[in-house]
Structure formats: structure tokens, C-alpha cells
Amino acid sequence: MRTRVVIQSRLNSSRLPGKAMLDVGGMPLVELVARRAARSGHEVVVATSVERYDDRIAAHLTARGVEVVRGSLDDVLGRFVTATRSLDPGDRVVRLTGDNPVADADLVDELLAAMDASGHRYGRVDIDRVPEGLGAEAFTVDDLRRADREAVDGYDREHVTPWLRRTLGELLFVPSRSPGDVLAHRATVDTLGDYVRVCDLFERVDDPVGVAWADLMDALAARVDAAGPRTPHVSTAVGVVSRVVPSSRRFTERPAGTGPAVWAEGLRSLVGDAVDLGVTHLDTGPGDVELLRVSTDPALTRRAAVVARVAPAGDTALALEAAVERVLAGLGRRGPVVLVVDRMPSGPAWRRARAYVDEGVATALGVVAHDAAAVASAARTPEVTWVEVHLPAPDADATGSLEVLHDRGAVLAQPWRRGDAVRPWATCLLVEEPSGDAVREAVAAFTAATTP
């Protein structure tokens, strides 16, 4: 039985154009991926598109002795079929992507051994339990050809394996030395920040091709540990939420003497560092959402979910819709967001808010509560799963309502400034100050408050 590793790659990446040819470890990224996959003797083919800009990939790899096949930009499944045309039906195919240089032949061999032991015909590294950048999939040539014959949906053909997963079932595999924190040990190249991080990893080793994936991840884990504590997470009705949530509501407060470009770069670093610390959500709203969008890397705002605050001009469905659409326009995409209204809407307005959930624009609904009565109203409304709580002091009138919200898994967000005490009911701290130091201090404050 032969095994062929097929690596898909293209130059027109939307988030980091041209990344396939960026230097990592002394060679273009895509070449490093191919050489690491071939280290144990596996056949390797890079499948790129016939678009003119991908001539650069094809010409470079061909000159370096790496086999290349080309096909439709969008029909990646068709490219894989072309890349495996010379194989027998019982041979195996391993799918890698050209932006994951940490993955290597050892990872491929471990996945194949797990499939042999389990009897599965399709297996993949479980990206829900393994850091992004260690993805790999394996299947037979026969099943790949079946998928080519039967998969007609554009999504199936672009992403190669959805038809296989639906039809064959799957082995979800976790490599033996995979680090535990999926977010902290991200090792793909999707953004400029990712590229810098991965370059640093490979610059510290003598043999970029020969170093094992597990040793690279150990080195990355040591760097993560040295960076200090990360924000803890909690499971809620909204999903997994970090205990610290940065807000963009003060992004408009550019300090005197700080130029726009310098301020924007500072905000970009703030968001990037927060995501690296494990932040899962970013809070934004009218007046600051545009600045969040233009001053941060789009890939970063997609790695963290958005909590979108809206302030309708009136208590009608039309007013709520207008407010939501303004924030979505500022965000530059139609969700998905956690939709938080600045006060509990009336019946028609609330029905319109629920409709945004039905439409897939909102994943959850929330309100801002400035007093005990507003907290009680949120507690009486089952759909409310995010409450920004502004209670100036412990209020016995709100205790029961806070308990109701807590028991149903709602997020209780406490607006927080440096020096504030962490309230006993707080699910997370909402950090308004646009400062990386403030975010780190919030992490430390929450950790201290919840450590026995």
C-alpha cells in the first residue's frame, strides 16, 4: 500500500496574501511543509491552482524537485483526484495544507497508525481538541474517487472532505504529545502575527526540516508559559467565554500627541495580545465598532466572537433593526454576534431581536442592566443569556435575579477598571481601558479572586 501526502496551496489567501512563498526556516513556507511531510519517505505532491499568480508556487517547487499538480482554484477536490491519479484504489491519501509548517511526517504516521488500529476509512486530527496548525486527514484513493463522482455541492468540492465525513463517519484523533490548550498553542500561518510567531519557532532550531512537530510544540508551550497567566474560561449558555472581555468603547479616546497610525497600531497589538492571552470575545458598539474593524486584523476579530451593543433610538422593532444594522455595517459583516441591547426592549422590538437569532445573525441575546429592576427583567426573560450588569454596590434586591441568571448559564459581565474588586456574581470582567496592561491586570484580578 502506498501513501501519498497531498498539500493544497495557493497565493491568493485573503488574510495573508502570498504567504505560501514567505520565508520560513530558510525556504518558502510551502516548500518547508512539503519537505517536512516527505521526511520519512512518503510521496508528496503539492496541489495548486491554474491561476497565473500560482505560477510562482509551481515554478519554485518544480525547480526544487517537489512534484506539483494544478487544477481549478475552487474545485480543490478535483485537484486531489488529479494528484492521486496514478495510485491504486486501496492506496492512502493524506491531506495537509500549505500554511501548517509544524505538521510533519511523524504526525502523518501517528494518524495512519491510529486509523489502522481503529479500522476507520477516514480519520482526521480533531481540531476541537488539538491546536490549529496540526491538522491532517487521511482516507483511501477509492473513497476520494467516490467523493469526486458524488459530491456536487460547491462547499464539498472546495473543502475536499465534507462528503467523506458525512458518508464514512470519522476517527477523531488526538496526537499523543498534543498540548492541552488549543487557543494558546495555535501554530498555523493565517495572519501576519502568526507568521512572525512561526518564524521565531523555526529560527531557534538547527534543522527546520528534521525537527519533530512535538518538539516544536514543546518550544511553543514554553514561550506561552513564559508570557504569564492566560485568562481562564467558563462554559455558559453562550458557549465558552473568557473571564476577561476587552471592550472597544474607549478606542475613540486617542491620547493627545499620539498620531492616528501609532494609535491604530497600538489597538491592533492590544487585540492581538488579548487573543493570544485566550480572550474569546470582543465587546463593541455604536461609535466604536468602525474603529475596531479598521484598526484590527480581520483574522483576529474572527478568532474572537463579537459582543455587539446596540442603542435603539426608540422602543419599536424598526428602531431596534436600524440600530442593529448600523453596528453590523460598522463591523463589516452580518454576524454572528452576541446581540446586547442597552435596555430590555418591548414585545415587538424583542421579537425582532429574536428574529436575528433565527436568521443566524445573532448567536445569543443580552441586555444592559443599570439597576435591580433591569436585572429582574432579564431574569424573567429566558432568551437573555448575556447581561452587562451595572450595580453600584451590593444590592440585596438583585441577589435572587442574579442567581436565576447564573443558574441558567447566562453571562454576567462586570464593567471593570483597574483597582475594582471582582464582584462575586461576575462571569467575566469587561475591560474598557484600551491597554494591554489593563487586560493582563484583569486576568490577574479574576484569577486571584477565584483562587481558594
From TrEMBL:
GO cellular component: cytosol
Gene3D superfamilies: Spore Coat Polysaccharide Biosynthesis Protein SpsA, Chain A
Any single Pfam family the record assigns to this protein: CTP_transf_3
Name of the protein: Spore coat polysaccharide biosynthesis protein SpsF
Annotated organism of origin: Terracoccus luteus
